[in-house]
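Dear colleague,

Following up on yesterday's call, I've attached the two folding results inline so they're easy to grep. Please treat them as preliminary; we haven't cross-checked anything against experimental data yet. The first protein's sequence and structure tokens come first.
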Amino acid sequence: MRTRPVSKLIRLALPAVLLTLAACAPAPIYKTSGAAVIATPAQVAQTPERYSNGEVIWGGRIVRVNVFSDHSEIELLAYPLDSSQRPKANDSGNGRFIAVLHGYAEPLDYPAGALMTVSGKLDGSRAGKVGEADYVFPLVGVAQSHVWTPAEMAKGRNNVHFGVGVGIGIH
């Protein structure tokens, strides 16, 4: 049986194309440790004592910022993170959490609706409300945080799409 030159070319080119596309994504911004908690904020809210002092890297959309005399709190609607630790805001939410920053955090630097990733340790939970509904918020003592710009969110995303059919794209 003879192989067709086209199928052989595809078999040779496909790994190179996939490797090139994977190389386009930015690297994660925070290093993960083996002790990192692999749970969503919604899961942690159900049994916060089980995850006490666990390390997390979580992200989401900023809901609000509260500034106190010695610390600031940023409420986030959590989303899963991509391989670069950017929140996937088109995915379904994974609950809410509060990022606790030491000192003053300028609310204009953390605008409502912006996407953010934090690295830190779980530090208990707090009962609160989302609208009129009771809610349990996991608290994260933030070691590092990053608010994503639209350019950073678009970086590493390609405009190459595979499919069968005919299409016209105007950008």
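Below is the second protein, in the same order (sequence, then structure):
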Amino acid sequence: MKVIVTSIFVQDQDKALKFYTETLGFAKKHDIPVGEHRWIALVSPEDQDGTELLLEPNVHPAAKEYQKKIFAEGIPATMFGVADVHEEYNRLIKHGVIFTIEPTVMGDVTLAVFNDTCGNLIQIVQN
């Protein structure tokens, strides 16, 4: 068994698609209308057949409450691996991304946390 799709709640699918593709660099794999929303799945450009990241609309009250509470507590909604946290941090700063935690060494990893502008904090990690 392996993870093939994971999702992240977003307040606005169009805004999230733009941020995750244009700013973060993910590649769009699926964009399929499903009722009033869409099945938008992204992948890493380095692994087109890898785990898909679903931009899930937070229309359910439980989803909205979950997203709001973990954000308020400073808890990242998910984590992405990067080769060099400092390099990625500098690249994203140039794109106007707001970080809540600058690159920080914690044990065997270096991490940073940023606001995805769609209701989430995202952690990037370098092993």
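For the second protein, one point worth flagging: The mean pLDDT is 97.

Best wishes,
A.L.
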